[in-house]
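TASK: fixed-backbone design
INPUT:
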């Protein structure tokens, strides 16, 4: 199928915009590759330090030219998504030994969970943890003793941070080995209903706790289609997973077989062999366009609108909100997975999963097939599914030709809606985005008086006091990256859902994040410039008429004197100390805007 004209035009625009940075980046990567395996340039003392703890592998590391894999792991045993990685390093080492190679854990990176920190102080470190992970990974790989890299990470900020660091070492072949989703527990529909009932005071905390434990009940990623699972989709559609690897549950024979096959695959792609496939050749502008298409087609997380530009920057590629908007307009929504539907990712996988989605998008001319992947040339390889017959031999077979459940997954010829799940917003309140895939059409045009708040706690207090009855545009400001690290404000969803269910016209307008868990409340998020830097939200007052027209992509304050007002300020001292937040002052001071990825590693003046 011929590539869609818009996809071709957006790709060309990104390529041209990025040319100076991309050319310079590739020149650096080619130079690093030409130097040959880095550990060959280390002195004997340097190498001895690197090999001292490797036991039986010591001699092979010191005398052999076989590949040495560097493993970067986000393992910890307090978070379900990362607990499965506990035994991955030993499995990877065993596979490497069978090929005469070696593997070492180069380093660990922190993995925090927005589900744990939601609504609490720790959430203000969440977004910047991505950049901490990128820095920590770079430190781990700086020892220069590795011929290829294996990344073990799953959740919200972990995968983007790992990708950002991998870009700095893009001359090395790199593969991501996922942990997989937990098995299905309490349905997402019941979970959301119980949260609303608790917010409305219909049930007590014991009932809420029982429901939450039934929903989040075992190892693996949370099963809703939030940022963690959007990350897994991205790694597959961008060619950094083996085909079909994203949504296989932990501790199963197929999951183990994919981990072993991924290790074997990356061992064959180092500069020491005949099939050198560095990461810098896989993640080019076509791969990032494919990632955006996948995000739109599946109704993925709004957090990736922050992460993809930051990830792309380390590969010399510049993405803009216009790129996302243009791709969204022509990409059909093929999937309904909670919070955009009732199904979870296990149901999505069973209905046909990514193999079906990728096949449909390729057939519609919406994806670049002519890309490099860790599985080899061509994205068409990812229309196949891994199978493991009783004899244990892993192979790939053609994916489903049709959806097994059209309430979850539909063909491109009959989508849930003709355009993607994200919309760019512009107007006199700044530039932002809204996720529409879960918002009913009747809630996409809201005109209501502003209720202005500077903290999430103040919104919740007003709700509990009964002060939010009636139509309202909840303006929550001073939540951007320079103000307090841009925390998610998803904790407001139950309360705002209750107000909407009572028949009120409700919208959220914020310079903060709402995450992949955002649902039926129309939420204008990531507004830039943020209030902290004097952005338009700092001029909004209680009672101002706010108009959100999601279909038209417009967000406006209709007050006649709005443009002439001084910007309000806020005392943010409480957000700058405690829970380690005082250590992140440098990050807050240097973070770019949300439209640039909200990263302190790429300040705005470098844009």
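OUTPUT:
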């Amino acid at each position: 199928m011929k590539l869609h004209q818009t996809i071709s035009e957006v790709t060309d625009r990104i390529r041209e915009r990025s040319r100076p940075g991309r050319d310079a980046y590739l020149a650096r990567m080619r130079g690093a590759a030409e130097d040959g395996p880095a550990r060959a340039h280390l002195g004997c003392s340097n190498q001895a330090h690197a090999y001292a703890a490797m036991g039986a592998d010591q001699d092979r590391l010191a005398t052999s030219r076989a590949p040495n894999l560097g493993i970067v792991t986000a393992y910890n045993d307090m978070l379900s998504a990362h607990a499965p990685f506990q035994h991955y390093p030993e499995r990877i080492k065993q596979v490497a030994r069978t090929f005469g190679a070696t593997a070492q854990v180069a380093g660990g990176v922190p993995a925090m969970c927005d589900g744990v920190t939601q609504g609490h102080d720790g959430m203000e470190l969440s977004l910047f943890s991505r950049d901490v992970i990128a820095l920590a990974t770079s430190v781990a790989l700086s020892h220069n003793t590795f011929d290829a890299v294996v990344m073990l990470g799953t959740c919200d900020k972990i995968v983007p941070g790992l990708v950002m660091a991998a870009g700095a070492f893009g001359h090395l072949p790199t593969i991501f080995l996922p942990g997989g989703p937990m098995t299905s527990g309490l349905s997402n529909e019941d979970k959301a209903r119980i949260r609303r009932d608790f917010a409305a005071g219909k049930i007590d905390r014991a009932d809420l706790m029982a429901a939450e434990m039934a929903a989040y009940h075992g190892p693996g990623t949370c099963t809703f289609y939030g940022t963690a699972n959007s990350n897994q989709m991205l790694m597959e559609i961008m060619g950094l997973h083996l085909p079909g690897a994203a949504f296989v549950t932990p501790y199963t024979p197929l999951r183990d077989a994919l981990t072993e096959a991924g290790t074997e695959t990356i061992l064959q792609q180092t500069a020491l062999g005949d099939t050198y496939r560095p990461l810098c050749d896989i993640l080019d502008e076509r791969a990032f366009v494919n990632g955006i298409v996948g995000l739109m087609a599946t109704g993925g997380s709004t957090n990736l609108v922050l992460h993809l530009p930051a990830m792309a920057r380390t590969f010399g590629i510049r993405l803009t909100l216009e790129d996302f908007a243009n791709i969204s307009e022509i990409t059909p929504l093929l999937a309904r997975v909670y919070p955009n539907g009732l199904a979870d990712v296990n149901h999505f996988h069973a209905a046909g999963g990514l193999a079906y989605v990728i096949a449909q998008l390729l057939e519609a001319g919406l994806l670049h097939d002519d890309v490099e992947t860790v599985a080899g040339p061509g994205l068409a390889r990812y229309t196949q599914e891994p199978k493991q017959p009783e004899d244990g031999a892993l192979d790939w077979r053609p994916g489903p030709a049709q959806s097994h459940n059209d309430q979850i997954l539909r063909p491109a010829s009959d989508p849930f809606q003709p355009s993607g799940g994200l919309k760019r917003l512009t107007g006199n309140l700044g530039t932002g985005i809204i996720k529409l895939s879960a918002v009913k059409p009747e809630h996409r045009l809201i005109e209501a008086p502003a209720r202005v708040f500077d903290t999430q706690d103040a919104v919740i207090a007003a709700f509990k006091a009964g002060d939010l009855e009636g139509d309202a545009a909840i303006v929550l400001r001073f939540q951007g990256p320079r103000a307090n690290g841009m925390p998610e404000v998803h904790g407001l969803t139950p309360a705002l859902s209750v107000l909407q269910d009572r028949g009120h016209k409700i919208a959220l307008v914020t310079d903060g994040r709402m995450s992949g868990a955002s649902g039926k409340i129309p939420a204008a998020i990531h507004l830039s410039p943020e209030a902290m830097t004097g952005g338009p939200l700092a001029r909004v007052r209680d009672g101002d008429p706010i108009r959100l027209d999601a279909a038209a992509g417009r967000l406006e304050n209709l007050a006649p004197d709005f443009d002439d007002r001084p910007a309000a300020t806020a005392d943010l001292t409480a957000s700058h100390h405690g829970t380690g937040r005082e250590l992140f002052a440098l990050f807050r001071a240097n973070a770019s805007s949300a439209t640039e990825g909200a990263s302190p590693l790429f300040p705005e003046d470098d844009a």
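COMMENT: The mean pLDDT is 93.
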